[in-house]
Each structure stands twice: as structure tokens, then as C-alpha cells.
Amino acid sequence: MQAQARSAQSVADRAQENARSLQVQSRQAQGDASQARLNLATQSSVGEVQSQLGDLRTQIADVLQSDILSTKAAPVVNTSGQQTGTLVNVTA
Questions:
Q1: What is the pLDDT of residues 10-34, one digit of tens each?
Q2: Positive or negative: CA dihedral 61, 65, 66, 68
Q3: What angle do CA 48, 51, 57 make, to 5 degrees?
């Protein structure tokens, strides 16, 4: 009878050790899953920022191109209100 009790106790001890091991593995798996979700969210955010930066580059290029094309010398108006031509930079 004592041999059976010792055997049963040994089986119970091993089962408890296995349960503890499974708990540790479960916590590690939950941590890994949390990290994976965080990484996915980070990648999504980085992709969105890159897309927005690309749009911003395009807008800047468009503005710069339109400024270059529309840059014309402004006419100069004399004291009588007449346009006399364009102002020339006379500073040395």
C-alpha cells in the first residue's frame, strides 16, 4: 500500500512540475504574441509615415516647379502710376 502511495505521489509531483512548466511556456508565448502585435503596429505606422512623406515630397516639388515657371519680373510703377518696365537690381 505504501509503494502505491509513493508511486502516486511521484506521479502527482511530476504532473505538478509539468503544469508549472506549461505555465512558464504560456507566459512566454503571451509575451511573444504581444511583441508580435507591437511589431506589426510599428510596421504599419512606419509604412503610413513613409507614404505621407512621399506625398509631401510630391507637393513640395509641385510648388517649387510652379514657382520656377511663374517667376516673372514684376513691372515697375513710376510716381505717375505708369508701368515703366522691370526693376533692375542696382545695388553693388
A1: 999 999 999 999 999 999 999 999 9
A2: positive
A3: 140
Instruction: Give the Cα separation of 35 and 39 in Å (integer).
Output: 6
Give the domain extent around 67: 2-86
In-domain check, residue 10: yes
How many structural domains does the chain have?
Answer: 1
- Domain contains 91: no
For 41-55, the pLDDT digits (tens) are 999 999 999 999 999
Evaluate whether residue 40 is within a structural domain: yes
Q: What φ, ψ does residue 20 adopt, rounded to 5°?
A: -65, -40
